[in-house]
Specification:
The protein is mainly α and 135 residues long. It has one domain (12-127). It has six helices and two strands. The chain has helices spanning 27-49, 54-70, 73-76, 82-102, 110-121, 128-134; strands spanning 12-15, 18-21. A two-stranded antiparallel ribbon has the order 1-2. Strand 1 and strand 2 (18-21) form a beta hairpin. The longest helix is centred in the N-terminal third of the chain and has 23 residues, at 27-49. Residues 122-135 have a biased composition (Basic and acidic residues). One of its GO terms (molecular function) is methyltransferase activity. This is Alkylated DNA repair protein AlkB homologue 8 N-terminal domain-containing protein. Residues 26-67 form the Alkylated DNA repair protein AlkB homologue 8 N-terminal domain.
Length: 135
């Protein structure tokens, strides 16, 4: 009770774009992120079909898809299940593959670059250039 009025009990709720369940599992949150990323995959494919430059495709990927997948990653990544992480990785590989196939101009192989960005966003690893930038 809050201010003498009963509080409704719910299975999950959304707060600051993070879905929180009463079991404190991240399945609902990760499922929602994967769904949103897959919806934007359609738009990425359409842009590719219009033969836009690879730089535009990479920007679209970074701004619309990667930003969804990396949102609040420090909060939920450590407690996610292996199944949830694999679902995320499938979406990342599929989306990033569309951008790379158009024009491969990466500093590292795509798998290393994508997984490196996931690790950096999760606070697990920094590249040498990031460490140098901070000094």
């Amino acid at each position: 009770m809050i201010n003498e009025s009963p509080v409704e009990r719910v299975d999950s709720f959304r707060y600051l774009s993070v879905h929180i369940t009463q079991e404190l599992s991240w399945f609902c949150n990760i499922n929602t992120m994967v769904k949103k990323a897959r919806q934007r995959l359609y738009h990425l494919r359409r842009l590719r079909d219009f033969r836009l430059p690879s730089k535009v495709l990479r920007n679209f990927y970074s701004c619309t898809i990667e930003s969804i997948l990396m949102g609040n990653i420090a909060t939920w990544f450590g407690n996610s299940t292996m199944q949830d992480r694999q679902a995320l990785q499938r979406v990342v590989n599929k989306n990033f593959g569309l951008v790379i196939r158009v024009s491969y101009c990466s500093r590292a192989p795509p798998e290393e670059e994508v997984s490196g960005s996931i690790r950096r966003a999760g606070g697990r690893e920094n590249t040498e250039s990031e460490v140098g930038d901070r000094q």
